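FAQ: What does the model actually see?

It sees only this:
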Amino acid sequence: MKPTPSSTDRQVLVTGATGLLGSGLIDELLTNRLKPVALVRDRVPDSNFFLSGNDRKVTIVQGCLEDYALVERTLNEYEIDTVFHLGAQTIVRTANHSPLSTFEANIKGTWNVLEACRTSKLVRRIVIASSDKAYGTSPSAPYTEDQPLRGEHPYDVSKSCADLLAQSYFKTYGLPLAITRCGNIYGGGDLNYSRIVPGTIKALLADEPPLIRSDGTLVRDYFYVKDAVSACLLIADQLDRDEVRGQAFNFSNETPLTVLQVVELISGLMGKRLKPQVLNVVSGEIKDQRLSSDKARSVLNWRARYSIEEGLKETIGWYESHLGRKA
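And it is asked to produce this:
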């Protein structure tokens, strides 16, 4: 597998560059001597993007996805060949509290990227990051790519819509794209401590009981960020194939866990046995979400490299270093 598109002259745009997945992708693109252009809305000093110094190694375009003129100018001015559209409002609780801003970022932001790519004479490959949430509540699990997208709650709906927009631009205009649908991505550098993995690690490092906002029984795939980065790059590298272009692919290590099981696993790896505090205050969450990665294995020859234990060990190490440095 070639980890990136082959030409080092290729100009690559990454939206959502300061996020968990975006920061990891920028790392890998720089390692492979490509030339990332990063669309950045807010400066987040604790993001890996800034902590690593990568902000000084890439071209930064300051602005938001909702600004079509900015997206179009960026593609043209920097002669973008490859687009990784990862930018989104990704917090379910925020979406429930502020649906309009989530719809603006996730739906309008996606149609702006797609339309700007359609009018560009240079864009040759586009990777659109969707989510397992795009499936909504499905009658059967694990989810496969042929199941309908039926989001119900604001975040899920925003991902269903963005995913369908991407499909429509391929089917109507032949836009050279593919779609990733990943499980819950975790890893060092996730600063959204309301999420179960970073929140649990942070609490245990402070010798405090982890907080579980649900009842603890929600089932999810937990997918290490380095595997998610590899998946994005692999799809970009294979977008010239008819079997890949226009397709959606699920990515998961296919080890679904309840929230309580994740907390217990992290606690065991950290050698701390603080009983979690189960708040049971969340709403608008899907009960059981699991993905099948059979299609990615058969079409892309893709395999997850990290088990949940291996990924969590690296993740815990990042927070031990980062939070220790902050203290």
